[in-house]
From TrEMBL, chains A, B:
This is DUF971 domain-containing protein. Gene3D superfamilies: 3.30.2020.30, Clavaminate synthase-like. It comes from Halomonas eurihalina. Keywords: Dioxygenase, Iron, Metal-binding, Oxidoreductase. Residues 152-376 form the TauD/TfdA-like domain. It comes from the Bacteria.
Amino acid sequence: MTTATPFEARQTRVIWPMSELTDHSGGHSLVDALTSGARVTLTWEDRQQAHFPLSWLRDHCPCTECRHTATRERLYIPLELPDSAPEARLEDGNLELAWADGHISRFDAGWLRQRRPGQESVDPVPARRPWAEGFQPARVAHADFVGGAAGERAWLTALLRDGLVLLEDGPLADEEVSRLAERIGPLRATNFGARFDVRSKPNPNNAAYTAIGLPLHTDLPNWRQPPDIQLLYCLENDAEGGESTFTDGFAAAEALRERSPEAFRLLSETPIDFRFQDEEHDIVWRAPILTLDHDGQLLEVRFNNWIRDSLRLPLDQADAWYRAYREFWNLVHDPRHRLEFSLLPGQMIAFDNRRVLHGRNAFNPNSGRRHLQGTYLDLDLLESRLRVLARSA
Amino acid sequence: MTTATPFEARQTRVIWPMSELTDHSGGHSLVDALTSGARVTLTWEDRQQAHFPLSWLRDHCPCTECRHTATRERLYIPLELPDSAPEARLEDGNLELAWADGHISRFDAGWLRQRRPGQESVDPVPARRPWAEGFQPARVAHADFVGGAAGERAWLTALLRDGLVLLEDGPLADEEVSRLAERIGPLRATNFGARFDVRSKPNPNNAAYTAIGLPLHTDLPNWRQPPDIQLLYCLENDAEGGESTFTDGFAAAEALRERSPEAFRLLSETPIDFRFQDEEHDIVWRAPILTLDHDGQLLEVRFNNWIRDSLRLPLDQADAWYRAYREFWNLVHDPRHRLEFSLLPGQMIAFDNRRVLHGRNAFNPNSGRRHLQGTYLDLDLLESRLRVLARSA
C-alpha cells in the first residue's frame, strides 16, 4: 500500500461530525488502532502515534445518547470504568469502537489528533504582552470595528494582548459606548450602574465625578471580582487639563519585583482592606495589592488610594508596608512608563481594569466641558467573541 | 482624679465625626497620648493601651483636606513618612495631633480604639457554616422580606451562612424574581441573559431548558468568575417529577478530603477545561474542580458534567482523575447529604452557586407545566446590603 502525502490526505479524508463546533478537519487519517490493556494506541498516516485511555474514550463518545444533539452538552456520566477492551475498527480513516455492552463510539481522526495526550488546544486569544518602552496603543477606526469581523478582531486582539486599545473617529452619539459594548456582551453592572457618566457633578459619591486630578488606579478593588474591562467613550473634552493617563500595572509590578523583591513580597503577601461606603452601599474586600497565582505569576493589580480602608497591620509591619506602597506608587507614576494623552471626542479607550491602571489630570470645569460615558465588560465574553469571530476567519 | 465607670464614660464621651459612615460611638475616652520615636502610645480610661505608627496616623487623617467631604474618599497620598513627631493633645477625651508642617489631625477615641493594631473589624456578614446532617433551609415569608429590614436581614444572613435559603408565599407574578433581586443589586447578566426562564423549550442550548433530569452541578464553571448567587422563583410546578435537589459542595469536598486525601488532592490540583459553545459564544475556562486558597481552605466548587471539555491530561493521570471524579460524584449525590423537595409556586430558592450544587429530577412535560424564572446576583452586593441594613439595627 502506498502512503498518501499529507496534502493529499487532507484533501481526501472523510471528516466525521463531532459534538463541538470547533474545527477538526485538518488532521491526518488513522492507519492503525490497537487495544492493549486499558488503552488504545492509534497511529496516523504520518506515523504520529498516541495512546488514549479507555476511560477517556468512553467519556468523550459523541453519539446522540452520550451528547445532547441540541445543546451539544455531555450526557454521559463516567461512573464506571470500561471493564473490558472494545473492538477497535478503522472506517474512512476514522476510529470506531464497539464496547462490550454493545455501545458504539465513533471518533474523527483529526478530532482525536487535536486531543492526544500532551497536545494543548489552539486558542486565538493572544498571550498578554508587557508594554515595551515607548508603547503606544493600537488604533482601530470605529467604521472598521462596526463594519466587519476584521476590525473587531483587531480591536479584541490588541486589548487582550496589551490591556489597552484606542477606537477612533466614532460618532458623538449618546450611548454609543453601550451599543459598542453590547456587540461583545451584556454590560457589567456595579454599584455605579451599568453605564456611568464621567463628568463633574454636584454631590459626587466618587472622585471620578469631580474635576480633581486622579492618580493612577484600578476601579472597584473593593469587590471580590472587580470589573474586567472598562470602556470610556469621549463625547466632549474642551476643558483645560483632563488628560488621560495609563500604565501597565503588570509591567510596573515586574519592575518592582526586579528592583525591590522585599517590597514586591510585601505588596503581594499582605492583604489590605478596600471599602466603599455611601448611603446605599458598604462594599468591602480584603486582598493584597498584587495577586499572584500559585507559580508567582501576576494575576491582578488592585490599586486605589481613595478607597483603601483603615490599614489593619501589626505595629511593626506598617512602616515597611508604607515604604513598599510608596515605591510602587512612584514606579507606576514614573513618566517613562506612563502614557498621557487627551482623549478626543469620538474616541473610546478600552482597557483591562485588573492589569492597566488609569487616571487623569485635573481639569478646569469653568474652561469648557468634559464628558465621558463608561461601562464595563466581562473578559470571558471578549475572549468568547474573539473565538467566534475566528471560526469564520 | 476618680476614674469614671465604663458605662458613665460611654454616656458622656464627646463623639467626633470621622470620614466613614460606620459607627464608632461605643468606645472609651482617651486619658493619655505619648509620642515616642515613630509611634504614639494611647491609653484609654479603662487602661487599654495601644501603639499607633506615625505613618498610619498621618495616612488616616480625616480632615477635609485629607478626605473628600462628599465622597468620603482618601485624598491624602502617603508619599512621605512624617519626619518628626507631632504634638499630641487630648481634647474631649479624643486625640489631636499637630504635625511639624502645621497640619492638624483630629481622631475620635472610639474610632481609634476600633482600629488599634491587632484589632479586627466587626462585620455583620456571618461565617459560612457547613450543613449538618438533617439540614433544612431557613424559610422567610415573602411579606417579611419586602416588609422591612428584619425579614431581609434574616434572608441575607441565612443565605450567606448556609449558602441556601427559601422564600415562600410570594405572588405568582411574572418578573417577581427580578424585583426581589433588584432590592439587593443589579442582575448579573451572562450569556443566557440577565433573567432566564427554566422550562422545556424547543431548540434548547442548555440542558436546563429540557425536561431531562439534571444531576447536581454548579452553573457556568466555564467562566473565570461564575455567578455567585442564583435565585430561582417558581411560578408553575404541576408536572410529574421535577423535584429540586441541592447539596453543600464544601461539606461534600471536606468529606472527600477526610475519606480520600489523594482524590481530594487530584481534584484540587488538576486544572481541567470547561467550555460552552453555541452559535454566538465559545466561553472557556480552565480550573480545578475544587479551588483552594493558599492555606488549603475551600474557595469554590466547579462541577458541571455537561460542559466539561475534552480532558487534557497526561496518559498516566487520566484514570486516577476519573476515579477521583467518580468518588466526589458519589459523595455529592449521596442521599444522606442531599436535599430534595418540590418547589411550590410562589417559593423562591436562593443559593451560593460557587458553594452549593443544584439539580432536579426529570419531569414529564406532558403531565403539567413547570416554569421557574431565575437570575444571578453578586455576593459583594448581598454582603453590602446586609451591612447597610445592620447600620440601623
